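thread: overnight batch results

M.L. [08:02]
morning all. the overnight job finished for the chain we discussed friday. pasting input first so we're all looking at the same thing
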Amino acid sequence: MQFTNPHFLYGLFAIAIPILIHLFNFRRYKTVYFSNIKLLQHILKKTKKESQLQHLIVLCMRILGITALVLAFAQPYIPKDEQFASDGKLISIFVDNSYSMEANSKDGSVLYDAVSAARNIVSAFGFSDEFILITNDFSGKESSILNKDEALSLLDEIEISTQSQLLADIFAFENNIASHSKNNERITYLISDFQKKQFDFEHITVDTARRYFLVQMPSQQSNNVSVDSCWFTTPVFLPGQQVELTTRVSNYGNAEVYKLPVRLFVNDQQRAIATVDLKPNSYADVGMSYTISADVIQRGVIQIDDSPITFDDELYFAYQVKSSSNVINIEERSDFNIYLQALYGKDSIFSYTENYEDQVNYALFAHTQLIILNQLKNLSSGLKDELTKYVNNGGGLLIFPHPNLDVESWNVFLTSLNTSTYVQLIEQELKATLPDIENTYYKGALMRNEANTDMPIILKHYALQKSGNNPSQSILKLENGEDLLNVTNVGNGKVYLSTVAMADEFGQAHKHALFFIPLHNIGINSMMQRNYYTTIGEESVFTISESALHSEDLFTIKSRQDEFEFIPEQRSVGNETALYFHDQIKNAGFYDVVKGENAITSMAFNSHRKESDLSYYSDKELYQMAKNHLGDCEIMDGSTANLSNQVAALLNGTPLWRYFIFIALGCFLVEILLLRFWSRAKVK
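M.L. [08:03]
and the structure it wrote out:
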């Protein structure tokens, strides 16, 4: 047997007090006169023996009671075979404050119980120990080593978080902080409901030099329905256009859901409603149509009603409605191409401008979505430089070759962009093949492919040599397998290469609808919006098509739900500015990008849906996973009232102080009974 507080053993000297009291009997006797001395002598002998026995028993009870009480304060225990040092330990405590911890418990919420459990754990250790307190926030306050009082104070600040860190990331964050401590004795506590999506035991690296304690908070398998994602079938938005929005709704429970209402709000007005039936552990896609009312920023919310888990019942999305796409056509000094004029110049969707190659207004590039190089024999060095910056900054470049193309000069430019290059002009009559109707540039324009579809005939074309480092995507092919039109991603932009010119000598392509469809979609490609929302916790970059010229002219992010605002990291790239948010946004909703006093655009942020799947490890599963991947670990019940004692027992051994308390109380009780009832029995 060993003692946690051996200095309390000095209290055993208190045993001398009852001994001294019994040695010096301070009781005063009253003299009573009797007429018969013989009878009195007999009674005195009998009373003296009983009194001595009574005093001896009372003395033993008092000595035993004081001894047991002193030993209880010294906290005796039976040591384990392997135990930590009594002082100088580094204790790491992870408190799971993800959305799943919002579930109700008998004392309020599971998170409240988890914080109470963490407080009991901290209380079980001494003031010479060091503490690391971690939540899913990975905040600056959690990045330092704390003393006992600081740890208890920080526990009071824990709230539900939108973040949900994986176990491997939690250990990496903890190890980074622990590297600043000189204590070699390390203990880690994980307090959580142990949701399967979060605790990826198989992806962790274990430190065998420390012990792990898994404090499992009681959780109930709840049925939960979540709005997971949304997308549009037509990614181009114009005022007065009817659009089709598809929403994916998932059922993570074991019960079937019938006629669940799904509501769509756009700019605070309900625009559509639908119902959905969901089988257990499945999802369904719900379509809703509405008409875009105006040329403004569209802020949409998809809502369902699914209590008690509500964080995933709303999905925010936002997009910008643009009235037109700016297109510049650059040609040699001749009559401008009538087919390009018909395609882009007479369609209200496009703002079409024509420039001669020696009179190009480079200032227009910053606000242009598509630049066409139509039958230019070669390029000037200045135009090459401006086009390179334009494409890398996100612009679209469409190239139609000259009948007498300076292949060598052009290929220097195309090689610098890491795209396909022109090889040679091939004079051979070929037909174009049927396009893929699921291709981005044909989707929605063709309902089906038929073998008897009229295809354009090509009389001659340029062969292309594709780049191995940056492969291109074919939009339309010839029957010999070569490309008629392809696209390559370059920087933030795209380069489109046509192997034929918009001229009769190259065949029928420039007059055929199957060639005009992708050209039209290339023109509006800049108006296509692909990211309608961002997930909180994922590293994201948002690009604004204008720059902040001065430090006083920076972009500011303002929440539309509250007064929260901040200035994000900003990097100017040409005429664009990239905004980096890191972990500054915590709550789902809409955020405006503000420059000066004007809101330029809006962004939508949503919570991660991995918390929606309320699948937890059972007791047996958790024990098996911990045994296989953590090695030396213990599973603890977080709902235990005397968690501090359980912590001490698991660390040091079996505590005995309770037994000594009972022994002390028993001794004092025997003393009281002896003094009260023995005297009464004697009188009778």
